[in-house]
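Note to self: keep these together.
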Amino acid sequence: MSVVCDVPREADVSAEAVEQPLPDVRVLVLSDLPLVADAVRTALRSQGLDAVGATIAPGPVSQGQAARMLQLGPTVLLVLADLAREPRLAAARTLIEDLHLPTVVLAATEEEALWGAVLESGASTVLSASVTLDEVVLVLRAVERGALLLAPDQRRSMIDTWHQAVRTRDEIGGRIGSLSPRELEVLRLLYRGETVPGIAEQLGVAVATVRSQVRSVLRKLGVNSQLGAVALYAQRGSTGGSTGGSTGGSTGTRPDGDPT
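Structure:
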């Protein structure tokens, strides 16, 4: 899935432009990477669009920041952000909500849940970063005119996927939160690839003690193996369906899931 909307054909845009002249389009390019924003602004200007830019910084977005962006006079918003990074996603969502502009999000991630997050915040549509510059320009012009490029059922499906991802993340967080401090420490060491004997040596306790703690971890997390526990721990902060990274090596798990 490379584009989540129907990109209007050049002929369609040109014909409509003849019948009804387009107002001046000023694109506000927001990115967490200033050099990327500069390159995109330059590219858009080469296509005849007026483009200005600002940087998305992690953390809370003040009303003053949003007001200063609106003083630039944008008519459409183009967001380029690493949606897989929670602070960037949160900042992008806040700006989309506060600016109240027709918005196109250019996303490097293909995670449908993260696309649903920005759609819920009011983005008009989401494009994969693999689209061409010509396609981006056509979509920006169409969105600025108020065109609905994303089918309502497709939009709702992506937003529902985001809601489900948040529920899953919170449910996993609750299970991990039920662990005792020592059980959580054991789980973290398993995540780093340590074996039960290795954990016992690091913690200065008997191997049997660690095995008992691992069994308690599996029971509280509702999984049948150390591999399952590690996979669940890897998803603890994920809302995009990814595992959040490598498990870091062997987990010391036999096929029956008993601690080794």
